[in-house]
C-alpha cells in the first residue's frame, strides 16, 4: 500500500471512530435547552406520544465497548493503513501455517507408499481409494471421472497404451508428462487428395472396408512419411508415443475425415508433468490406481 493510500485509510478510520464517539456523547443525556421527555409535541393515534429520552446507559456503554474493541483490534492486527499490527499477523502467514498442517497430515498418510513399485501399491486396498481421489482432483478433467477418456485424451481402462502400459511407463507418464507431436504432412503427400489416400490406407490397416484403389495409392505415401513412427504395419511405437493404427482404438477418431485432417494438419498432444503438482509419492499412488483399471482393479 502506498503512503498516500495509507494516509487516506487512516484518516477515514479516525473520522469514523471519532464521529461515533462524538455522536454517543452528544446524545447520551439531556442538555439545557432540550425539550422535556414529554414535551416533543408528537402524538399518534391519540395516545402514542414521542418522548425525548436519551438511550439507556447500558446501551451507550455497549457502544463505547465496541469502539474500544475496534481500537484494540487495529493495534493488534492490520487495518490502520499500512500499520501491520503488533502481533504481526497476516492472512498469507495464516494460510501458509494451515497449509503446512494439512501437508503434514497428507505426508503422514502417504509415507507408507514412498518409493514402492506401483503394482505393489495397487495391491494395497487402502491405496486404491486414495489414488481414485487424486485422479478425480487432478486427472478427471481430461480423462473423465471414469478414466475412459474423450476425443484427444486416451482411455486408461483398456489395454491400449500410447506410451506403454507397464507400471514404470505409467509412473513416468504421470511424473514427467508426455509430449506427442505429429507434424502436418499435407504438403509432403500431395495436399488434400494425397492425405485422403493415406487416410484410406490407414483405415484399411484397422480392417475397415475401403476403396482398394485409394488404399493402394495411399500405401506408398504412408511408407514414405508414416512408417518411421507408426511402423510398416501401423502397429505404432510406444517409445515415440506413436499410436497403433492397426486396431479399432482411436485417440481422435477413425473416420475418414478425422484421419485425413490429421495427415494434413498434424496433432500436438501434451500431458503436463504432475510430480511438481502432487509430489512423487502421490504420483505413485495415482499411477497405481490407473494401472489397476486395466489390470483387474477397475471396480475398486
UniProtKB/TrEMBL annotation:
The UniProt family comment states: Belongs to the CcoP / FixP family.
What would be the name of the gene that encodes this protein?
ccoP
Q: Which InterPro entries match?
A: CcoP_N, CcoP_N_sf, Cyt_c-like_dom, Cyt_c-like_dom_sf, Cyt_c_oxidase_cbb3_su3, Cytochrome_c_Oxidase_Subunit
Q: Where are the transmembrane segments?
A: 7-25, 58-77
Cofactor detail note: Binds 2 heme C groups per subunit.
Q: Does the keyword Electron transport apply?
A: yes
Provide the binding site for heme c 1.
139, 142-143, 271
Q: Cite a GO CC annotation.
A: plasma membrane
- Domain named Cytochrome c is located at 126-206, 213-294
Q: Which organism is it from?
A: Denitratimonas tolerans
Compartments it resides in: Cell inner membrane
Q: Which domain of life is it from?
A: Bacteria
Its GO biological process annotations read: proton transmembrane transport
| Main location (coarse class) | membrane
Task: Please report the name of this protein according to its UniProt entry.
Answer: Cbb3-type cytochrome c oxidase subunit
Q: What does this protein do?
A: C-type cytochrome. Part of the cbb3-type cytochrome c oxidase complex.
Amino acid at each position: 500500500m502506498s503512503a498516500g493510500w495509507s494516509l487516506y485509510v487512516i484518516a477515514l478510520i479516525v473520522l469514523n471512530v471519532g464521529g461515533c464517539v462524538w455522536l454517543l456523547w452528544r446524545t447520551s443525556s439531556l442538555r439545557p435547552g432540550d425539550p422535556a421527555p414529554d414535551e416533543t409535541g408528537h402524538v399518534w393515534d391519540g395516545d402514542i406520544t414521542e418522548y425525548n429520552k436519551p438511550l439507556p446507559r447500558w446501551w451507550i456503554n455497549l457502544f463505547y465497548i465496541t469502539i474500544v474493541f475496534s481500537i484494540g483490534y487495529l493495534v493488534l492486527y492490520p487495518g490502520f493503513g499500512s500499520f501491520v499490527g503488533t502481533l504481526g499477523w497476516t492472512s498469507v502467514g495464516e494460510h501458509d501455517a494451515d497449509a503446512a498442517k494439512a501437508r503434514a497430515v497428507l505426508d503422514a498418510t502417504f509415507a507408507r507408499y514412498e518409493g514402492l513399485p506401483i503394482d505393489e501399491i495397487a495391491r494395497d486396498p487402502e491405496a486404491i481409494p486414495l489414488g481414485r481421489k487424486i485422479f478425480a482432483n487432478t486427472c478427471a478433467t481430461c480423462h473423465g471421472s471414469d478414466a475412459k477418456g474423450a476425443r484427444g485424451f486416451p482411455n486408461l481402462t483398456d489395454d491400449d497404451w500410447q506410451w506403454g502400459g507397464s507400471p514404470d511407463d505409467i509412473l513416468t507418464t504421470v511424473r514427467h508428462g508426455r509430449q506427442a507431436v505429429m507434424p502436418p504432412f499435407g504438403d509432403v503427400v500431395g495436399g488434400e487428395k494425397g492425405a485422403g489416400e493415406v487416410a484410406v490406407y490407414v483405415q484399411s490397416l484397422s480392417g475397415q472396408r475401403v476403396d482398394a484403389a485409394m488404399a493402394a495409392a495411399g500405401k506408398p505415401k504412408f511408407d514414405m512419411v508414416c512408417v518411421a513412427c507408426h511402423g510398416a504395419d501401423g502397429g505404432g511405437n510406444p517409445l515415440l508415443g506413436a499410436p497403433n493404427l492397426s486396431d479399432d482404438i482411436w485417440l481422435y477418431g477413425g473416420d475418414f475425415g478425422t484421419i485425413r485432417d490429421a495427415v494434413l494438419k498434424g496433432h500436438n498432444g501434451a500431458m503436463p508433468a504432475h510430480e511438481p503438482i502432487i509430489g512423487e509419492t502421490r504420483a505413485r499412488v495415482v499411477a497405481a490406481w490407473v494401472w489397476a483399471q486395466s489390470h483387474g482393479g477397475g471396480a475398486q
